[in-house]
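Minutes, project check-in
Item: structure for the 714-residue chain
Input as provided by the requester:
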Amino acid sequence: MYIKKIFSFLMKLILSVFFMLIITLTILSCVMTVYFVDMMKTTELITIEDKPFRTHSSIYAINNLTGTYELIYKRLCDNNDIKLSIDLEDLPAHVADAFICTEDERFYEHQGVDYKRTAAAFINELINMYGSTQGGSTITQQLIKNITDDNETTWERKIREIFRAIRLEQSYTKDEILSAYLNTIYFGQDVDGCNMYGIETAAIGYFGKSASELTIAEAASLAAVPQNPYYENPISNYEENQERKNYCLLKMFELGKISPDQYEEAIHEKVLVANMQEFKEKYPEYKTLTHDEFVNPSVNSWAVDTAINEFCETLVKEYNITEEKAFEEFCKGGYELYITINSDIQGELEKNYSDLTFFPKDTDENGETIQSAFVVLDYHGRILGIVGGIGEKESSLCWNHATMSRRQPGSTIKPLSVYGYGIENGLITWSSVFTDAPLDAGVITSEKWPENYNNFWSYKSNTVNYFLKRSLNTLPAQLCVNFGTDNIFNFAVNNMHLDLDPQYDNDYAPLSVGATNRGPTLLNTVNAYMPYGNGGKYYEAHILEQVIDITKNKIIIDNSSPDYEQAVRADTAYIMNKMLQNVINPNQPDNESGTGVTAFLPNKTVAGKTGTTQNWRDIAFIGLTEDFISGIWIGYETGENPYAIKNTKAATVWKNVFGNFANNYSSEASYPECANVKDYHYCTQTGLLAGADCPRSKESGYYRKDYNEYCNVH
């Protein structure tokens, strides 16, 4: 009886434990099912294109002889990664077979996961039953690792990888997956220490040939690498690589991918690698992956520097990052920059800026030499030529006086401020009459102000056209008082896009005679003159035509069809252009000739403006032709020497450096006509339209068609 009770108790206990286990396992199964279903739903779909790869950043410019873009600069990525791709159909069958037989022999049979290999790998890892030369991951799973860089050693990662592999196989064919795999594998480093990605890269780096030319033995040598690319590549450890190569060949033979004769031949073939002396003797013409027929100049050109800086400035604005981060992004590689430079113009500028006879040679009292910069744009904002300093450029990404130096613009500001504002708003005309006299003491300063450049006030009455071409300072000051500095400042900044300091430059001296606080750059000033040569349109100056992020195959900067703003009315632009032509035109009485007559070109119609700052520290000239807007600055970086520059005419240097090229430039371009402008004779005394009895100028002036204020004196 006692034994029977014990037996009954044990049976109940066993049954209870059994049912508890059943319930527990059921609950765990439900939990695991929910977990796996949830993970499958939340595991994102991976695409083959997901893995961005950076190679290098390149800059291309149009070759004027061929009309096509050519490489002018290449920046290898800082991480020394190189990837070259090849299409699967271009590979011999034995190349793909070597990898399939070695890494995933049931590749064309499974749906992304080889459960037999996965189970074997799991058991082997748990009990270390036997050594294995294959892991549990299929080619599809390895591709996912390469794409995502998801290499955590966790069960969650492994499960996530399985789900991703299944979904990838549902979206792509086997050949697409195999092709992507072969083009993303890491193969170790070549003789130059470059990280090689993709079978084409490895074939060239190790054997000096395309993957399409690999022998069976060479293909097996490469198939031996992915298991441990740092240790089993043929440069780091040749013997270990060849040992695993023989294993690869055996698998290919066992699986019927190569014949017995092919196997024997491949086993006995000596694979030559690029670091061997025997290889170098056999292939003396071999070039490493980093060797390129194209070689960067030892110092970047001004154009290349400008392109890199504009790229960085764009990223700073677009992504709110620092300039340092933007430059790091360029150096990481992966960008193609197509620039607007005209090779003929750039060559002309660089040649002439190397000719020091064009420039004053005097130094200031501290021994500082004169510097200069030049910019050429077309009427859509494209930078066609740029030079940032005199003489041979000594370093890359150095100081560029054309884009970085902020200088007082002197009288070049007048058409962009007082005169432009007055004509745009109908407050002055070509022939409005004013007196050449300073403002009285106490109006602006404690003394009469301003002085003219010749230190002389004539107190005679003359037209706006005369004041502009003679670059007299008195009228701009008077107009500044009449119109108000706020209005003129806003016009210069918002309409003409001149870069002025709102704290200091909204004042009489900056806006009337160009005595700004920091001043605009030469590039900015030249750009601001653009509307006066193209009908009033402003296109922002740029050297980047297009930038392509080749890792995403995406255009990230596109100036091929740039937008514009209508900065001023077309009739304002036309009238101002005609006035600026009179600054240059030499066919006028001597006492009425403009300050820029030495820039006159016989084949082109030049419109322009000179500028000088106090003590001749800076001189400048902005010149427009039917084809180009260009400008030159000459001066000292920090010092000054008025005697050195005083007798130098910026217009003359402009002509020597670029004007002669512009004069011989063949084109059918012309300044835009404007039907809303008419040329009328004006009364030389009142400045109003001339009646029959009015004294008339030899030349007529240009006015809006609806202007009808006639002289009522004569």
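Outcome recorded: DSSP finds 23 helices and 19 strands in the chain.
No further action items on this chain.
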